[in-house]
Each structure stands twice: as C-alpha cells, then as structure tokens.
Design goal:
single chain, 184 residues
Length: 184
C-alpha cells in the first residue's frame, strides 16, 4: 500500500518531529529498525527509516504508525441512574402485565358468569310464560267446574221440589240460567 507521508515526518534532514495528530504528553511508539537500510542515506540520530524508496516513485513508502487510542473514558454519573430507571421501568411493565392478565382473566370469568345467568334468566322467563299459560287454562277449567257445579246444584234443587209448586218454578228458572251452556 502506498501513500504520501504527512509533512511532519523528517526525511533525514535533521531531527524527527512528533506527529501533529498525537496529543502532547503521550510517547510515540518506536518501530524496530528495518532489515536493511539504504546505503545512500545516512542515518540521523533518532531517525527511524520507514521503507526504502522504490524506483520511479518520488515519495518513499511508509508504514502507518500505530497511535495509542484515546484514553479510557470515565463512566458518566448518569449510567447508574439510567440503569435504576430501566430496572424500575421493567419492573413496572412486568407488574402492569401481571395485573392486566389477572384482570383479563377475572373479566373472562365474570363474562362467563353473566352469560350463564342470562341463560338461566331466559329459561326462567320461558318457564314463567308456560306457567302463566297453564294458569290460564286451569282458570278456565275452574270456571267451567264452578258453572257445572251450579248447574248440578240447581238440577238437584229442581228435582227436590214438589211438582207444580211455586218453588219448582223458581228452581226451573235457576236451572235454565245455570245450565244454559251445559244442557241446551
């Protein structure tokens, strides 16, 4: 890989300079000397050659120097606060979910009970209508029985009277009234 070296490197003309991108106070790593050094270039004290010149190139090939990474950053005071808020939020969400599931289950139970009660009420209404119909029929039968009883009583009274008496005439009139639907 070839690239142009930054302008702050010395090419053997004096003392090497610190790269401008490195923060002051951090020492730059020194690389090991190359396996051979060109005889045409005298080595300056403290100079570390990077790579020899290749023929036809105006710039020497250089290897990038590994700069130390940024200093480790301190954890912010907000990290524990955010962690506590996250834990409280998750606990609240879990509690809300549990309560919702419990309430949902209770709601389903109540809905089932309501449906059962509505079915019972519908059955009781049908039974009530049937009982009212039966009561109506029994009232008609009771009225008929009463009418028949009155007719029989008047018939007994008519036969118990003497022939061609005034009491017989009254019994005959009562018999005609009470037995009109039964005999005539």
């Amino acid at each position: 890989m070839t690239y142009n070296p930054p302008p702050h490197y010395s090419l053997g003309d004096g003392e090497p300079q610190q790269p401008q991108s490195a923060p002051p106070g951090y020492p730059q790593p020194q690389s090991a000397p190359p396996a051979y050094s060109p005889a045409a270039q005298p080595a300056a004290p403290g100079y570390v050659p990077t790579q020899p010149m290749q023929p036809g190139l105006s710039q020497p090939l250089t290897q990038p120097l590994l700069a130390p990474g940024p200093p480790p950053q301190r954890r912010s005071a907000m990290v524990p606060v955010l962690a506590v808020v996250a834990v409280i939020g998750f606990a609240g969400a879990a509690l809300s979910l549990a309560l919702w599931l419990r309430t949902s289950g209770d709601l389903d139970d109540v809905s089932a009970q309501i449906e059962d009660r509505e079915a019972e009420i519908a059955q009781l209404q049908e039974d009530l209508e049937a009982a009212e119909t039966q009561v109506g029929d029994l009232e008609v039968q009771a009225a008929d029985a009463e009418s028949m009883r009155a007719c029989l009583d008047d018939l007994n009274w008519y036969y118990a009277t003497e022939a061609e008496s005034e009491e017989e005439a009254q019994a005959e009139l009562a018999l005609q009234e009470s037995c009109a639907t039964w005999l005539w």
